[in-house]
Amino acid sequence: MARVTVVDVPQEDDPPPHTTTTTEQGPFCTARCTCGWRGPARRARSQARKDAQTHTDPA
């Protein structure tokens, strides 16, 4: 029988919170998150903020 060694692996009980920001590049605004998600480029900042809010709201 094979011998198995257990190594301490940190357990994630709660995933880190999503932190969103908006960035502007020229006439466009994009919402981004710390998890790697990125929303579409928008001309309206309010729509980019709405994209970020939709991303962070629980389903």
Structure report:
The protein has one helix spanning 45-56; strands at residues 20-25, 28-33. The protein contains 1 helix and 2 strands; from the N terminus they run E-E-H. The termini are far apart. It has 59 residues and is an alpha+beta fold. The mean pLDDT is 84. It has a two-stranded antiparallel sheet. The chain is elongated.
Features:
single chain, 59 residues, alpha+beta, two-stranded antiparallel sheet, 1 helix, 2 strands, 20% helix, elongated
Q: Strand order within the widest sheet?
A: 1-2
The percent range for strand residues is 15-25%
Distance between the termini: 45 Å
Q: Tally of extended strands?
A: 2
Let me know the average pLDDT: 84
Low-confidence stretches: none
Largest sheet, if any?
A: 2 strands, antiparallel
Radius of gyration: 18 Å
Q: Strand pairing plus helix content: what structural class? A: alpha+beta
Task: Give the topology string: H per helix, E per strand.
Answer: EEH
Describe the global form.
elongated
How much helical structure, as a percent, in the residues? 10-25%
Number of helical runs? Answer: 1
What can be said about this structure in brief?
By secondary structure, the protein is α+β, with helices and mostly antiparallel strands. The chain has one helix at 45-56, and strands at 20-25, 28-33.
List the helices and strands and how they pair.
Blueprint: E1 20-25, E2 28-33, H1 45-56
